[in-house]
AAA family ATPase
Amino acid sequence: MTDSQTETIAFLEGMMTGGGRKRVETHISIILLAGDAAFKLKKPVKLPYADFSTPALRLAACENEVTLNRRTAPDLYRGTRRITRTGSGGLELDGPGELVDAAVEMRRFDEDELFDRLAERHALDTPLMEETAVAIAGFHEKAEVLHTGGGAANLRGVLDINRAGFATSHVFSDAAVAGLDATLRKRLARHAALLDARERAGKLRLCHGDLHLRNIYRTPEGPRLFDCIEFNDAIASTDILYDLAFLLMDLWHRDLPGLASAVVNRYLDRSADDAGFCLLPFMMAVRAEVRAHVTATQAETAKDGGEALKALAGQYFELANDLLNEQEPRLIAIGGLSGSGKSTLAVRLAPLLGVAPGARLLESDRIRKALFGAGLSERLPDEAYAPGVSEKVYAALNDRARTILDGGGIAIVDAVFSRAEEREAVSAVAAGLGAPFTGLWLDAAPDVLRQRIRARSQGDSDATTEVLESQLARDPGPLDWTRLDATADAETLTATALDMIGGGQPTSM
């Protein structure tokens, strides 16, 4: 640390008021905390990916940090403060004198609300993660579109950096590193055309770049994404799904597959980016490899906790390999009358099928509401359930399922399927692509269905007892799907469904 920054820190800490004083350091930043305020300084370092070696460069980086992070957390980033020399030789904020340093002024928040802390306390839940997924999708929709010709080339560059990073540590054998690198490059070659097409289609954007649980926190108004990559736009200039993949990988690594499944499915419901779903296992593997080599390097330079860091690096390395397991495309359709528990079973199955992040869950209720531009808790008018609308809903379900299977993924379609032609059409999607198909029908007595509908709160489904009665009065025709007892407990029903599907484990490489 230079003398000038030592002076800067003393000046800022001297002017800060309030309790809870704390100083946090990273390899490129110093954060000073007191009361409800925080000041973030850039260390005067010059690295291959970041140059903060002069006050002017640090000022520019601070201004960029505020601009970029206000996209997602405007209430957190108060502004950039110039630290200048006074005529008497002291320091002041935003004076006319010589620029000595710069800082980002922020509003301090409760660190216990950080998502990684919530995860440690088992306080992350599905509604919060679904809200986060929608927030991320909304952010990506508005992010600056970039056309750099860097679809596959961007990720090839990441693999090159990863390979060089492993060479600086000795946690993993050369053979293990070479094996993972070779498999990743083969997978990149498989996806290169799609990645390049996505860049041309505007999917490469100025994203967050560091979107893991520690960079999201909970507020009463909803989740906030913060601390994006501000020091090197090239690092944050990436495919929007690669941005999302960091969060998915983090959740999967923390053994929270159900939450990862909720995030990816709500994100894709909002973005309709089903054609990119097939990229996510590879992108998550690249993210895991990044964490493996970074953590391995930290392990070799750490004064304390080196063995724990080596173990953590090993977890990431193993996860990267697991994410590259092969899977076969498969289609599962879950049908049954309203109140039979289709959505509950589908949600439980999704993270258990195939490689991470699991199966793509396609729900008729969500697609129907999207067609009418309605929120998930909004009740649709009666005309939303007219036969012509239902035909559009089932057609959309089949189209999306076809997209998922065509990319090599697994899809679960959740709808009533009370008409024979609807069941035939969804099975034809799988047959047309030569993929296995499993049709599951949930059975329950009419009184059980009525009781369930009366008891449940307003959610995705608008089904009423009147809707159920009309379903009960309709002849479903020949039903050749596997019938399951919808009154069985959730664990038993899920296990039975997995047996009918054929398990959920991917094949090894």
Remarks:
- The chain has three domains: 3-108, 115-322, 330-501.
